[in-house]
Amino acid sequence: MQVRSEIISIQTETGPMRTVQFSPVGLDSAATIIFYSEIFQLTAPIMRSAQVLAGHGFNVLVPEIFHEFNPAGTVLEYDEAGKDKGNADKWQKPLTSYDSDVAALINYCHNSGTSSGGIGVMGVCIGGHLACRAALNPAIKAAFCLYATDIHSDTLPADPKEQTFARLDEIAGEIHFIWGKQDPHVPRDGRLKLYQKLNQSAINYQWLEVNAEHAFMRDEGERYDPALALEMYQKAVALFHRTLR
For 125, phi and psi rounded to 5 degrees? Predict the structure, then answer.
């Protein structure tokens, strides 16, 4: 399928959130995937990933996750300065603010006329965490979380009872966790802590560890693994076709 895109502004409790919407050509409405980026926001690799998903028949919304702290349209470079700025924004934004962001995105889906069927979420790096976090909302039917940072460590700004790790039992939809075994940001001990927590819960989850480094989905840089990335797109598309339609 060919894909069209447009820029929309979604009003949240903390101000307007610039969002890029990708839609399959020929469909007036479709099931929706909210796609969460890395700390660098809407980079070229993130846009290409969103287009891949939209080309499989989904409406894809890609929000600027740090819209409170940057002019609309801010994209950070994959360099030390970009990493420092993105991490500074990450440590500044309260974790609960993402809850109101996803509520605004869901409200847009319900009222825009472009979304039909269910709503799913997908994300990479901090976006993987945000996809997991979004799944706390009962409107989210499925989540695909790639190398999600900071869930195991409870390090994003929030009260202990509001940390995502503490609230995992609230997830009602199906959730998939994908990890790279060589990822220093979520080491083996961190993955084991999360896996044990999930095993003690009653949520519907799947777990996969692959031989890869952090950011293996990003089609820029030496860590990119094209074969694994293709496999992950296929798994994500299969999940969303099954759960959102």
Answer: 60, -125
